Amino acid sequence: MPTTTTHTPVHQLARYGYAPFLLIGLNGIGFALTAAGAPKILLLLVLATAIGASFLVERVIPYDPEWNTDHQDTTRDRIHVAVNETLILASVAAIPALAAIVPAPGIWPDRWPLLLQVLAAILIADLGITLVHLASHKIGVLWRFHAVHHSVTRFYGLNGLMKHPLHQTVEMAAGVAPLILLGLPVDVASVLALAVAIQLLLQHSNADYRVGPARYVLALNAGHRFHHLKWAGVGDVNFGLFTLIWDHLLRTYSYDPARRFTSDHLGMAAKPDYPTGYLRQLSYPFTSEGACHPTPTPSPSSADPGDAVRHAIKGPRAM
């Protein structure tokens, strides 16, 4: 069973300090660097620190020690991260050109303090990404590409960016396009890009960290594991990237503090043999096998009695 029983000062510091260190500390450093006009490349050093901290804490307080071992997916996931993080950075770099093509109406609150601008950008982006994420579980053509992300059978920081690049592009466009139309400044976009990367590390982390009641509002790993349950309908919950606010409003929120997870609960019950190689994952959504075909899928009540809670929501992943 995945569990962490150690209670040394180091473990306690990691358990309660890791999330604030990334959410407040590293995001705060990125914010301060940007506000001071520092070169944007320094944000990559902040991201590298976040990745290093993720790997370290996952080994100090693992939720499941087995998820720290290679499942013949480490190299593939690193390629996904490199490609998709490059797409995120490219989208930020393209903002001045896009602003020239699509003049903003001048309603972005650029006179607000930078911190408030960043928080506003996060909330707006979170709504757009949440809606596309939800649509990706309902619309077959989107699910074809989103299924790449749901093929994971372990939770650790890097698989937050284990996504098909086309779906990554669609998701980011949904989050960023409204901001560009409002006149999003490049500095705000840079801090937002760092926040997205840090959030994905936290959301898919194998670290057994704690955030108290904030777990009901912030889209972190405790809630996001429910999103990766492999049964159709059961995993169609908790779509938010930054927050669970929109999930509460959309009635797609689900959480049970007593629920424990193993690799047997993750992935896709309808496609247990989903391709695992990087190039095959890129091409698979374009093949007939990558479509949604009716396939008998064990119901949560028969496969795992603890998962009957959300079986009412249907979508293409049921196929």
From TrEMBL:
- Annotated localization: Membrane
Which Pfam families does this one have?
FA_hydroxylase
What segment(s) does the record annotate as region Disordered?
Answer: 290-309
Chief localisation class: membrane
Q: Which UniProt keywords apply?
A: Membrane, Plasmid, Transmembrane, Transmembrane helix
The protein's superkingdom reads Bacteria
Every copy of the Fatty acid hydroxylase domain together lies at 119-252
TM annotation in the entry: 16-34, 41-61, 81-102, 114-135, 179-202
The entry's protein name is: Sterol desaturase family protein
